[in-house]
Amino acid sequence: MILPVVAYGHPNLRKVCVPITADYPELNNLISNMWETMYNSNGVGLAAPQINHTIRLFLVDTVQIVEHADEEDKDDYKDEKPIKQVFINAQIEALDGEPWKYNEGCLSIPRVREDVLREARVTLRYQDEQFQEHVATFDGITARVILHEYDHIEGKLFIDHITPFKRRLIKSKLDDITKGKVKTDYRMLFYK
After folding, report:
1. What architecture (CATH level 2) is domain 5-189?
2. pLDDT at residue 148 above 80?
């Protein structure tokens, strides 16, 4: 089932999310709905707070970024190891590598994109859908998408990483999203 994406201005996007256990109600169904919602919205990642669940759960698919890159961008992704994966109860173990800028957007903040500086590599401790624990290191665009989604479960948004000046420049767009004055190709949930 395709779920509505929570829009900027909703308080759940600013909450630090809570860990879950294997007995979380309807978890497999929720994960399935998140994949469907993400693909319907043309996203490459989706975090639980974006579908109104304040739990430490997000999913990432960077395979589609690498496979669908334009010819001129293919070289940018030649060393990538793309993933399609669910992350439960993730915690960052380490951040390293040369920080790099990339133009990010967010399903919860439609029609807004900004350059964000993030580390090139992240080591993450997390559980998969079977609650098996893993520690893994991710690089490049995959690390970036993971860090973007990880921010969501920490109550942060990509716009928190831009300068106050740039925030002022996009303030009217953010205000419009908060008021529900934005059109998207996917369902959104606005806070009233």
Report:
1. Alpha-Beta Complex (3.90)
2. yes
Please provide residue 20's backbone torsions phi and psi, each rounded to the nearest 5 degrees: -125, 165
Structure tokens at 8: 């900027």
Neighbours of 26 (CB within 10 A): 9
More confident residue, 165 or 77: 165
Residues tagged active-site:
149
Are 12 and 48 in contact by the 8 Å Cβ rule? The answer is no
| CA separation for the pair 182, 13 (Å, rounded) | 18
Torsion of CA 38, 43, 48, 53, to 10 degrees: -70
- Pairing of β 121-127 and β 84-96: antiparallel
- Quick: pLDDT tens for 1-49: 999 999 999 999 999 999 999 999 999 999 999 999 999 999 999 999 9
Place of tokens 């993971």: 146
Segments making up each domain of the chain, as ranges:
5-189
Cβ–Cβ under 8 Å, residues 90 and 143: no
How far apart CA 156 and CA 152 sit, in angstroms, is: 5
Q: How many CB atoms lie within 10 A of CB 79?
A: 8
- Residue 71 binned pLDDT confidence (cut-offs 50, 70, 90): confident
